[in-house]
Amino acid sequence: ATLTPSNEEPYVITTPLYYVNAPPHMGSAYSTIAADAIARFQRLLGKKVIFITGTDEHGEKIATAAMAQGSTPTDHCNLISQAYRTLWKDLDISYDKFIRTTDSKHEAIVKEFYSRVLASGDIYRADYEGLYCVSCEEYKDEKELLDNNCCPTHLKPCASRKEDNYFFALSKYQKSFEEILNKNPSFVQPSFRLNEVQSWIKSGLRDFSISRASVDWGIPVPNDKSQTIYVWFDALLGYISALSDDQEKPDLLNAVSSGWPATLHLIGKDILRFHAVYWPAMLMSAGLSLPKMVYGHGFLTKDGMKMGKSLGNTLEPNDLVSKFGSDAVRYFFLREVEFGNDGDYSEERFINIVNAHLANTIGNLLNRTLGLLKKNCQSTLVVDSVTAAEGNAFKDNVMRLVDKARSHYENLSLTSACEAVLEIGNVGNSYMDERAPWSLFKQGGTASEAAAKDLVIILETVRIIAIALSPATPSLSWRIYEQLGYSRDQFDETTWSDTKWGGLKGGQVMAQPKPVFARIENQTEVEDK
Ligand code: ME8
User: Fold this and answer.
1) How far is the CA of 299 from the centre of ligand 1 (A)?
2) What pLDDT does 128 receive?
3) Which of 49, 108, 239, 461 has its CA 20 to 30 Å from the CA of residue 312?
4) Per the database record, which ranges form the Methionyl/Leucyl tRNA synthetase domain (predicted)?
């Protein structure tokens, strides 16, 4: 067969490049899970997807963390960056590129970028005095600080600093920004975050310093070894350097030609200003195209405070995964935290939701149907699903919900997409209960034939659920497909068009019924009994 090269633009999605000051926590996992669900959905649509994640390894905050561990920055970064990759594997994260800002190709590209911005006349040298939050790696406006100059996110006092730095002329881009946002208000998502960005712009964009004389652990400023490049002016470039091949002489334009601009930067709302203001201006200055969209999701909170490495009030994703499995963790956070808004975690809620939805609504529906099929039809489908559903309005209901799920995924309404798929499970269970095929089988004759068809209808419904939920629960979806008698290759080849009614064929033999999602035993529930 000939390979036809595709001219189609790839769907390039990125997560933040996480700081390696501490191992990943549930907040970092949350962004990555959401990005993975979007990437998987786009692949189902047949898009060529480039899913980028990675680690942000330079700057004062990292150097200090390494020192506190009695380690060198390099050893520390290697260790923590690896912890991210291990967690992503355990969470079924299907990234295509993992960039480390200490990769030599990244460093080369940052230097080249800096030189382009310098050549465009947007870098100058000046003294700066201000209040600095190391956890944010950002100079703060006094207005935004709490008492004692405390950072509102990290609750730590900001230190007064004075430095002779290189500055980026952000203020030059004021007009361009107003135009961009007027022309393309969907650049910032969810739409309610646009106001925030607009008010920053209205209040006047101020130049910011892009180098540090006081920090060694960073990329040296080209032509001035006494300073290193500010960690944000370095890390954002990771979205481009990730696209670069591992060639001997990495170059910016080559990387850009391999997929830039990004379709979607998925980030938390804490770093919206860097992505929606600083980054586009940097790109304009270097003459590169802008990402199509920046989506700032909400925070996972604990007692109302942002869960984070700096505050130390985090939830251990490794513990959750080893206790409950990747599907449960992925599903819970996508389904329970209204995508875009903040959400609180509680173990009780976690157990209730995944038991009700994954173990009961989906797992149990499949399991009891396969049990009946085994008992009454030797685990074999009597007719194909199209024939089984002829003249049955139930099928139309399922197809309507599938379309609903699709449009929610397309609009990045991940929570609503999960809800729509679960609704398919609910209507499937109602259908099963109304039809009560177990009693029809007892009647024999045409009642029994109708019952056999009902089982096909339910199994087809569960098959459709498996595909439609696979962006959220890839492992569970595969286990369902396996139960329905498909091979791993067949599962891997599924696309969104397979959510169309009609996949199951007459004569298809199902596997031995086996629960696809083990109910989580709730300690307190057990003790209460
Ligand atoms: O900011 N709830 O890295 P970072 C939801 N290196 N998401 C959360 C969260 C929470 N409680 N806590 C963290 C950096 N996140 C920079 C990024 S990009 C070129 C450089 C997620 O390790 C959320 O996506 O502090 C947030 O924006 C990101 O982790 C911050 O990660």
Assistant:
1) 9
2) 83
3) 239
4) 141-370
